[in-house]
Write a structure and sequence with these properties.
The model has no long low-confidence stretch (mean pLDDT about 85). By secondary structure, the chain is mainly α. The chain is built from 7 helices and no strands. The longest helix is centred in the first third of the chain and has 18 residues, at about 15-30. It has one domain (about 1-95): 434 Repressor (Amino-terminal Domain), CATH 1.10.260.
Length: about 100
Amino acid sequence: MYEHAIIDDLNMLDRDALMTKMTSELPYISGSMGLTTTGICIRTGLDEERLSLIVSGKRKMKWSEYMSLLFFFWNDKKGRGIIAEKGFFPEELKRAMAINRNEHE
């Protein structure tokens, strides 16, 4: 039953809206963290040329790229604040990823 709830949570996400919003906010996020596209790619394993094309609007972000960026930013204190403020890690996704599962214990 728990697996169905996770799938339901994931189905409720508007992935396209999240990816579009993150794409438009990437320059702000990276600038706030003092990172270049190169720095982000080195740390996440994303292809630098592809990320540059995404930021310039010439390519659409993939969900796997979104998740890589999300977890990279989430693991940085400043990045986590920005991600939380911008709503890039919605509760449905946190539940599906079991984030903070044991926080209440």
